[in-house]
Amino acid sequence: MSLYEHFRKDEHPFVDQVLDWKRIGEEEYRPKLTDFLDPRQQKIVKLIIGDQGTVRLGFWGGHENAERKRALLYPEYIIPNQDDYKTTLFELDYPKKFSTLEHRQLLGSLMSIGMKREKFGDIISDQEHFQLILAKEVADYVRMNLQTVGKTNVMLRELPEENVLPFKQERDERAVTVSSLRLDTVLSEAFHISRAKIKPAVSGEKVKVNWKVVDDPSYQLTEGDMLSLRGKGRCEIVQFDGETKKGKYRLILGFPK
Fold first, then answer.
1. Residue 5 · residue 186 · CB < 8 Å
2. Helices (H), the chain
3. Based on CB atoms within 10 Å of each CB, which residue in 70, 199, 204, 232 is the most buried?
4. In whole angstroms, what is the distance from residue 228 CA to residue 256 CA?
5. d(C-alpha 246, C-alpha 127), whole Å
6. Element (H or E) spanning 244, and its range?
7. 161-203: per-residue pLDDT in tens?
């Protein structure tokens, strides 16, 4: 069986990239540090690298509960530490008494200065303080160029990573039954929205599966997929719980709090 059969077709280019990283470790015997990976990409890396070969694997995203992390592939003779992952923690200084920031505003401002999503990790907030984890190689560029978020003037202040804001992701789970594993069908059930309204949201690129825009309502989902619908939130297919006698699918969905 081909390795590629374990992954969706749209994931094959990333699989090729991971295989090249693995080759660097096996043939050139040197470490390879990646950009920030989303959880689905991290899972693919783990599946391909495994834990039995000569190439070892570690992840770090600036804090213990990070969602987005850099991967470090390294030969057996290296014992890595957190500094090897080259992450930088910044906190935004801004006039809190007079301004309110939002996650989407900060994300948009980073994109507007030319930042690729792969070069920064989690954006962490307690609604008043905002922190940002960056790849060290772009930290100085962002510090100099990120001067406003929305209409608010900001400055970036570097902090030791142990000063990261407390972060604990909790979720509610709900059992549902769906007629198919189509994207529009599962989203409709997850967010209690008719399929007639879901379809234009999907075709309008307002839906992501595993952090990538998917514009096909018939896209087939599987266990572990993370879905997001703009303006409504996210949910994960935590578990495929079998089929009913009528051929419907029982799913456990998880909703981050």
1. no
2. 12-23, 39-49, 103-112, 136-145, 183-191, 195-203
3. 70
4. 11
5. 46
6. none
7. 999 998 766 789 999 999 999 999 999 999 999 999 999 999 9
Contact between 209 and 224 under an 8 Å Cβ cutoff? The reply is no
Q: What is the pTM of this model?
A: 0.83
Sign of the C-alpha dihedral computed for residues 214, 175, 124 and 137 taken in this order: negative
Task: List the structure tokens of 169.
Answer: 């992701």
What values do phi and psi take at 108, rounded to 5? -65, -40
Q: Count of CB atoms within 10 A of residue 138's CB?
A: 18
| Phi (first) and psi of residue 90, to 5 degrees | -120, 145
Cα–Cα distance for residue pair 235/220, rounded to 1 Å = 16
Q: Which tokens hold the place of 20?
A: 């090249």
Q: Tokens 């008719």 label which residue?
A: 194
User: Tokens representing 43?
Assistant: 């899972």
